[in-house]
Amino acid sequence: MTTASASKTNPMKAAQRVFMITLWLNLLVSFSKLAWGYHTHTLSITADGFHSLLDAVANVVGIVGLSISAKPADHNHPYGHRKFEAIASMLISFFIFLTCFEIAGEGFSRFFSPTHTHPQISPISYMIIGGTLLINLWVSWYENRKGKELKNDLLLADAKHTFSDCLVSVSVILSMIAVQLGWYWADTVLALVVALIILKVGFDLIMTHFSALTDEAALDPAEINAIVKSVPGVMDCHKIRSRGMRDHVFIDLHIQVDPALTVKAAHRISYQVEEALENAFDGRVNEVLVHIEEYETPEPNPTI
Questions:
Q1: Residue 117: band (very low, low, confident or very high) from pLDDT cuts 50, 70, 90
Q2: What is the DSSP letter of 116?
């Protein structure tokens, strides 16, 4: 039995820098909306400003989550702290659900409010929402690109959250147009549509990270089996298991080798198996545990 850890560059610091950049941009967006919303007594812009603060909160959660998950393995956490990243992503899902209920509640509130409570729309209102919408679109694109580049699920989760803010801003713009046209009922309809979209985003995030927290298979056993059997000296492979985050996978398996081999030769084959798996999955495999067994020739089927 042998154990080897894959050596790879830790992208945690790079991901934290991304979160710091997006945090300051989200604060700029939220304060711009809140300042103008309070100045003009425009409820929809004010509500959107508070919603944008959720993005900044999610950024803080992301920074803290990455700081904890970047800690090395210790006595109490021999497999490392990476699942804290999944927990942080689940917290971002909570903020998405909070946003969903906020939008739905605001939509119904506008529907049942008296006419004099409708927002007073001006060209500057469109400029504020339009400008912050462009910033959020860039932030979502930037986080998504860096998340894929760094193979970081937390950045990808926050990118989806930021994109939900873009949907809210679009809803506010459409609501402002509807108010100017006198179609006040459109506020509620658009708010509910956006709320349903955000609800779907939050549900998808939970399902994505729930699998990591419940040790669902991270890789296809058939694919692992094919790679292992391609290593010279491996006669059979079985009891394949994998778990972990998308970019931090643990694999353990049993291989069968020629019983005439020396212990040293058998271990050399196991090292080749580990290397083959680490190379095949582009650095996603953090550790491979290989159990060595003697190959037993299958007994022929009895003839009748």
A1: low
A2: G
Residue 62 to residue 18: CA distance in whole angstroms: 10
Distance in angstroms (rounded) separating the CA atoms of residues 272 and 280: 12
What is the C-alpha separation between 161 and 168, in angstroms, rounded?
Answer: 11
Task: Show the DSSP H helices in the chain as ranges.
Answer: 12-40, 43-69, 83-112, 123-150, 153-181, 185-213, 221-229, 263-280
Indicate the SS3 state at residue 253.
strand
- Output the six-digit token pair for 168: 């809210």
Residues 209-247: tens digit of each pLDDT = 777 777 777 888 999 999 999 999 999 999 999 888 776
Structural domains for the chain: 2-213 (1.20.1510.10), 221-294 (3.30.70.1350)
State the CB neighbour count (10 A cutoff) for residue 60.
12
- Interaxial angle between packed helices 83-112 and 43-69, expressed in degrees from 0 to 180 and rounded to the nearest 10: 170
CA distance 244 to 79: 10
**pLDDT tens column, 241-261:** 988 877 678 899 999 999 888
d(CA 295, CA 25): 60
CB 42 within 8 A of CB 36: yes
**What are 59-116's pLDDT values in tens digits?**
777 777 677 766 777 777 777 676 776 777 777 778 778 777 777 776 677 667 655 4
Counting every residue, how long is the chain?
304
> What angle (nearest 5°) sits at the alpha carbon of residue 109, between those of residues 185 and 38?
105
Burial 264-293 (b: 16+ CB within 10 A, else e): eebbebbebbbebbbebbeebbbbbbbebb
